[in-house]
Amino acid sequence: MYEFHPYFTNDGSVGLYSPVYNDIYHSATGALTEAYEKFVMPAGIDKLLNKDSIKVLDICYGIGYNSKSFLNYIFKKYSKNKNKKLKNFFDQDNNIETIHTNNISNDRIKNLNANSIDTIYTDNILDKIKNKLQNITWLCNRCTYSIHTNNILPKIYIKAVDNDNILSYLSPFIETGKINFNNNTFDFEHENIDKYLIKNKKLKTQKIHSEINYLILCNLIKSDPEILKNEDLISILNNPKFSEYFDKNLSGIFNFYRSNIYKLSPTWGKVSFLHNIYYRYISNCYKKHLNSLCLLDVDFELKIDDARKMILSDTNMYDLIFLDAFTPSKCPCLWSYEFFKELYKHLNEDGKLLTYSTSASIRSAMKEAGFYIGYIFNERENKYTGTIATKNKKLIKYPLSEFDLGLLKTKAGIFYRDKNLTGLNEAIIESRKNEVKNSTRISTSHFKKLYKQEESCHMM
Ligand SMILES: C[S@@+](CC[C@H](N)C(=O)[O-])C[C@H]1O[C@@H](n2cnc3c(N)ncnc32)[C@H](O)[C@@H]1O
Fold first, then answer.
1. 49 CA → ligand 1 middle, Å
2. Which end of the chain is more exposed for a tag (fewer CB within 10 A), N or C?
3. Which residue has the higher pLDDT, 177 or 160?
């Protein structure tokens, strides 16, 4: 049977332990906290919201915290703005014209009354029209046009990749943000897991909107209906031992859908059927949320594959790349110079690649591949916790210090190589080990010593 070792991290979100890698998949601080602090917050998403579309590549999707947190951030922001807009609208005592529409036409836009506040409720506002509305607002500064639409979000496209299908298929069901939990109730590899958990440091974090898990589930079923028959997935979802870790609503929907799918007539769309089930199962509060989001504007595609193979056949350009592979010493194939060269080709000019790793070898591989690099600053911990890589120097808020740049030139800065992007991790590790052994570069410890000496000389 598939090995699945869940635990609750310190912020109440579910983390996983891998006996194969003898490593945890998620930081003890909190799986969700980590996703926010290392990927979502430093991504500068607010600036991207002005674009017509945002493309994200989530490398090493796992159980999906990075994609989910990204969507959660956008949905929250969007709901907040929407409420603010509504409040402004009701506070105005003006001549109000309201248009409720599912499809607003160009003519209607042209004829908007410049002296009134026009409010347009629409489910479907085309980009072309959206631009026009912005122009009108700009031209007629005596009036305000408020637009409440379910479709004003930029089009969001997330491509996620992981080579572990079961993990990815489990992702929509994972419970996030549980508060009272006890790690010792179940019989998992807690001796190993506890090594990584810092107890008594419980954080509270945001909970992922259930709609996001629902959206992911819909997309998974749509793109790969085989997941409904996946025996490993089914046995994990139905195993009472794991039930604590799953969102019961979503597991219920899945089971109900599975048992009813065969009764569908061919004319019924699978997703609309799933949609109906969802409506039956969910509370009114969820229904309200679901209505306020335009789920159709989010395209989520999951590739179950080696990320190296995926990138070689991918033609997209991304605004954000999240790289969340296991540490370089355990999974060097996703940290090689050649892999970063491919990522460089797929990043937009104003895009950002984000990772939690601070290792000198990955930073020098990024630099060699053409990126500008800098730190990710964690405000809660008041320290640098990761690396950001861009094609545009101006986007680097915290450039590397002289010391960290110096480290790149030492033996620690010798990067992993994977010429054809097909090497095995063991072989890649072995070949770097040999390169380090035969290198004439200064050793890292010697460099550190010299640097310290120089620093103390300057201080005198
Ligand atoms: C640290 S975990 C990622 C956690 C994940 N971001 C999440 O939110 O759950 C690393 C992931 O890398 C995946 N992985 C390992 N080697 C890979 C490869 N060559 N290609 C794609 N994914 C890989 C593993 O299956 C695992 O899910």
1. 28
2. C
3. 160
